[in-house]
User: Which sequence fits this backbone?
């Protein structure tokens, strides 16, 4: 858990997120088997997906009292590049948000998102016909990763208010680091499914948690079952 003044709490949480995404992108690109499935679940479409990396940061992406803050603008720009690096490395990323929030976006925000989806087909658009308030408790990001799509056994997640909704005062960011053999792994995914109806590749994830491996050693025990096969006639003996 990260607690403190909201601005500092957010800076620490998103900085940690940036380093996690950078590590995941690097790991995907190093040639060894690795898979990442992520979900960004926020009331409005995620801030980095609304910002083009080759343009100045749009003021609409920042809380009104933070517009003009160079540090906040730099963070938004860095995050916009970081999520695209993860997509370029091959991660599957679900963008889950309230449809009402998307309808309220200005044209340049919608264009930035549409362009990103066109460039990266592994960005999965997942709007929900839910009020923004339904997203508040689960607002954040979840990363699942493992050696292949049948073994997504690691989980890192952050829960904190969306940047544009952040106000001054005390705040906390909840961090989740777990693996598929821990109950918190199930709880994290179950919350997303029960509240937002979001399933992050469930058939792939749950496959990694099925029973222990089967014993593949050959069975050397003698076969004591009666032989019911028909007898093979000897040479010169007529068949019955």
Assistant:
């Amino acid at each position: 858990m990260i607690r403190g003044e909201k601005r500092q709490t957010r800076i620490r949480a998103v900085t940690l997120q940036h380093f996690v995404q950078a590590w995941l992108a690097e790991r995907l690109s190093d040639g060894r088997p690795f898979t990442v499935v992520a979900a960004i679940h926020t009331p409005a479409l995620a801030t980095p997906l609304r910002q083009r990396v080759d343009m100045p940061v749009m003021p609409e992406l920042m809380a009104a009292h933070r517009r003009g803050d160079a540090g906040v603008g730099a963070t938004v720009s860095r995050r916009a590049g970081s999520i695209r690096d993860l997509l370029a490395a091959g991660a599957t990323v679900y963008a889950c948000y309230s449809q009402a929030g998307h309808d309220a976006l200005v044209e340049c925000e919608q264009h930035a998102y549409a362009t990103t989806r066109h460039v990266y087909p592994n960005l999965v658009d997942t709007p929900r016909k839910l009020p923004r308030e339904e997203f508040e408790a689960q607002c954040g990001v979840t990363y699942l990763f493992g050696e292949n799509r049948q073994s997504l056994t690691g989980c890192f997640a952050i829960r904190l208010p969306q940047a544009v909704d952040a106000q001054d005062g005390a705040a906390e960011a909840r961090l989740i680091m777990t693996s598929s053999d821990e109950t918190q792994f199930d709880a994290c995914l179950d919350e997303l499914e029960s509240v937002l109806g979001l399933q992050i590749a469930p058939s792939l994830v749950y496959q990694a948690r099925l029973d222990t491996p089967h014993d593949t050693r050959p069975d050397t025990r003698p076969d004591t079952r009666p032989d019911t096969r028909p007898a093979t006639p000897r040479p010169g003996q007529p068949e019955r």
Q: What stands out?
A: Confidence is low (pLDDT under 50) at residues 203-226. The longest helix spans residues 6-28. Helices lie at 6-28, 47-50, 70-88, 99-103, 107-119, 183-196, 202-207.
